[in-house]
Design a protein that fits this description.
single chain; 395 residues; alpha/beta; eight-stranded mixed barrel; 14 helices; 55% helix; elongated
């Protein structure tokens, strides 16, 4: 059972406080505690009493503040002070045996070094928890302040140049107005669980934007917006309800929303992910497998999970320029859609006219990439949509 949050916080505060103490002050406190432990042991009657247990306090404190070296020094000092310098029985003045105080010295050393080792691990974990908490708070503030925003990349018909939809990609807007790329904040968000809030913020903004484009007749009824879902989001019990409520709020038909899932999002809880994807499809949303071909079990995932379409990873597109084997591989990937009765795949990362025309020859009718349109803000994409079909390059 996980430790209660209030205990974690009290422990975090204690460890952080101890590690922040001034070294000189901590060292002086250790010396005072050793002296006080000796005095307490003497008053209690000598080393045969419970008094020597008091020496564990300065040893543990020194180990926690100074690590292994502090544990060794404090344990040796405590062992000597509690050994030859403390009588076995103060009343009759009988001394301790060498074995008696040497054994206690070894116990102090063991306790000190165990404390130092455990404290080092606890400190690292505490710092990580505190950093994660700060990251989650920053994400919440950014979302509340409207700084987590989508940019949109066109998904284009490779035959006609018609923009059939856009993929909404998360960006973090800095105070100077520049946009931070996902690689700089998404990994931390995934580790801390803040990615769910980012997913939902992008989903809400993308649906609102699509509704605005529909109201102003920028797009037709068949236009769709695509949004990425994280692994954590697939595990949320309220995901389907959130998607339904978001669509209803903006008057968007489920068929106009595509939700993209990467293969890595399926490995956490395959059964739960399958159930979630089935529920989304029943809602009427299009479900896509993103980055197809990157994982080790792409084919089995297509068979096991209820996908409507898959997106061909950019590594396959680059492979088109590496010779006939690359082209044959892409051809097989494209033909796979028909075999499995899926919608035609979407090729990602199209950057050269040669790649585009080779994909057309192999039968890929949809794609996205810098050649067809770079990610841009809503106003820029609106201008692209108003201009009509993308001008496809000739070779």
């Amino acid at each position: 059972m996980p430790e209660p949050l209030w205990r974690q916080r009290r422990g975090d505060q204690f460890i952080t406080t101890v590690t922040g103490w001034n070294a000189t002050a901590t060292g002086a406190l250790v010396v005072v505690l050793i002296a006080a432990s000796w005095a307490g042991s003497y008053v209690l009657g000598g080393s045969k009493t419970v008094g020597p247990q008091l020496f564990h306090i300065p040893v543990v404190l020194a180990a926690g503040r100074f690590g292994g070296r502090g544990a060794t020094v404090s344990a040796v000092v405590a062992g000597v002070v509690c050994g030859p310098l403390l009588a076995l029985d103060v009343a009759d003045g009988s001394p301790q045996s060498l074995g008696n105080w040497t054994g206690r010295l070894l116990i102090f050393l063991v306790v000190g070094h165990l404390t130092a080792a455990l404290h080092a691990r606890s400190l690292a974990a505490t710092h990580q928890r505190l950093e994660d908490s700060r990251n989650r708070h920053r994400v919440d503030q950014a979302i509340d302040g409207g700084d987590i925003v989508p940019v949109y990349q066109p998904i284009v018909s490779t035959l006609t140049g018609r923009v059939e939809g856009v993929e909404a990609l998360a960006r973090w807007r800095a105070p100077d107005g520049s946009l931070t790329l996902p690689a700089e904040f998404i990994p931390d968000a995934e580790r801390t669980g803040a990615i769910v809030a980012i997913d939902r913020a992008i989903l809400a903004q993308a649906c609102a934007q699509l509704a605005e484009w529909r109201r102003t007749d920028v797009v037709d009824e068949g236009f769709h917006v695509s949004v990425n879902l994280s692994a954590d989001h697939l595990e949320c019990d309220d995901l389907v309800a959130v998607v339904r409520a978001t669509l209803d709020r903006h008057g968007i038909a489920p068929a106009n929303l595509m939700l993209e899932v990467t293969e890595t999002a399926l490995v956490h809880d395959p059964a739960g992910a399958a159930a979630c994807l089935h529920a989304l499809r029943e809602l009427g949303v299009t479900v896509a497998l993103d980055d197809f071909g990157v994982g080790q079990s792409s084919l089995s995932n297509l068979a096991r999970f209820p996908f409507d379409v898959y997106k061909i990873d950019r590594s396959f597109v680059v492979g088109l320029e590496l010779g006939p084997r690359g082209a044959a591989l892409v051809s097989g990937v494209i033909d796979l859609a028909g075999t499995l009765s899926l919608d035609g795949p979407i090729a990602e990362g199209i950057e050269t006219p040669e790649q585009l025309h080779r994909l057309i020859e192999l039968g890929c009718t949809r794609g996205q990439g810098y050649l067809l349109g770079r990610p841009a803000g809503a106003d820029d994409i609106k201008s692209v949509l108003r201009r009509g079909p993308v001008l496809l390059p000739e070779i």
